[in-house]
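Please check this one:

***
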Amino acid sequence: MPHIDLPEGYPGIRSLFMFSPETAKPLNDLVQTLLHDPTTSTLTPGERELIATYTSSLNHCKYCASTHGAIAKYQLGGNEALVKDVISDPSKAPVSPKLRALLIIAAQVQEDGKKVKTEDVANARQQGATDKEIHDTVLIAAAFCMYNRYVDGLATWAPDDPGIYDAIGKQRASEGYLTKPFKV
């Protein structure tokens, strides 16, 4: 049960956005830029969603990991197995060496930003990551630590039905983050 009185029928951050539209706007603008906008990063939207999914899974945020995993699935042509592989063990997931190096950085940011070392950044560069991609990875991981804590800190509803996350994933993969969420 949520810690505050939230609108019913909207899971996770969706209920918080309905509760507080004035904070929803900048948070949605940020996630739109970080994850969906194709012109703001050389990482694909699917790769960026994987970073958000992996960070959320490390934070044990069921709602965000499930939602962004579903979005990633749609951004990656329906490849749900890849999403599960990244969550399970990115070192063995069938992703590029560059993305694997970026996921290592994301995990370090999730634990403590100061855990990112010069050699980790050098490794990511060696695997082909640009400074912009390293920047985007750190910002996505840091932002998702905030989003995860926002969702879980207010004890929002995280449905058990995978179909709900799939519907959210399909909507967000095609529409982005600036349209109003539908009620489930």
Observations:
- The CA atoms of residues 36 and 45 lie 5 Å apart.
